[in-house]
Amino acid sequence: MKFIQKYYIVLLVLLFSNKVASAQDPNFSQFIASPLSINPALTSNGESSWRAMSNVRTQWVGIGSSYITQSLSVDGKLKKLDDDNYLGIGGMVIAEKAMDGIFKSTYININTAYHLSLDNKGNGLAVGLGYINNNTRIDFSQLSFDQQLSSIGFDRTLPAGEPSLSNATSFSSACAGIMYTYDNDNTFLNLGAAGYRFVKSNRSVLDDKTQYISPRYDIHADFGTALNDRVNLNVSAVHMIQNGTSNTSIGTSFGLVQNANDFNSEQLRMLNLGMFYKIGNAIIPYVGYNYNAFQFGFSYDVNVSSVKSGSMSARSFEISFMYRGFSSSNLKTGRYHSPF
């Protein structure tokens, strides 16, 4: 049984390494809580002077070793150029781990964005640029190969017989995006497009120069409005394209204000209930809660894909955390709160 498990681990690693050209970047079910992974123009967007966000996604629970993706981002308004225009800066780290840590990948992204007011009616434009670095590492010392099979079982001190293997690969690239925004006290709208890695980047632990990770392009839209003094409505969508494949996620949520101070930014108690849908893949119920500047979210992927994973059903869930900091100079009060 141990031999079979190790055989399949090796097989999965080699498949991942050889087929990385068709792989896609990590993406979250709660993409509203990971804006820097969607568009660099979303850097420092929103009501707060700064914000910190974190996502933890666990996939394939119940089928061998789970695949864990974690992100941490911090961004804020760096310099206010006048009453309406400002420069923002931010950074994000995404760490992936699989096969009990044998596979690890770290993605670092540093962004800056300029937010320009087009008029005094709430119309604006944002342009973002970013630097990307990715490092992928596979600990082959924890794997067993056919050449290491002896009469007493696998002996990892023996040569693996795979001279072309490299335990790490990395690349650096850039990203850019643009976004139109409309914002007033009751409603906001974002429409944006972005590109990540505009040139193909080699990424193969087999030292295969023909294997690469392709550029990624996405478009997104976010709309929110206050239905009344106690209820928010948010609708969000993102469509990602990479290497000829695409995926689309859409979702809606309602924010139900719990406290007597209505939508005052410093004193907020709000229950968030919603549903997301990864088209052809999963239906995702979502529940969250705002407590003053803190926001928490939990979602669970209900698989609706026609691709089955055997007799066991894969389970995926995601947790998000957010903290938003406000200063007295830009404290926004009103009836509407953005999910960002």
Give a quick summary of the entry.
The protein has one helix at residues 2-18, and strands at 50-61, 67-80, 86-98, 103-117, 123-138, 149-150, 153-154, 168-183, 187-196, 201-202, 212-213, 216-226, 231-242, 245-257, 269-278, 282-291, 294-303, 315-325. By secondary structure, it is mostly beta strands.
Describe the structure.
The chain has 340 residues and is mostly beta strands. It has one domain: monomeric porin ompg (Porin), CATH 2.40.160.
Terminal Cα span: 48 Å
Radius of gyration: 22 Å
Give me the number of helical elements.
Answer: 1
CATH fold description: Porin
Q: How are the SSEs ordered, and which strands pair?
A:
Blueprint: H1 2-18, E1 50-61, E2 67-80, E3 86-98, E4 103-117, E5 123-138, E6 149-150, E7 153-154, E8 168-183, E9 187-196, E10 201-202, E11 212-213, E12 216-226, E13 231-242, E14 245-257, E15 269-278, E16 282-291, E17 294-303, E18 315-325
Antiparallel strand pairs: 1-2, 1-18, 2-3, 3-4, 4-5, 5-8, 6-7, 8-9, 9-12, 10-11, 12-13, 13-14, 14-15, 15-16, 16-17, 17-18
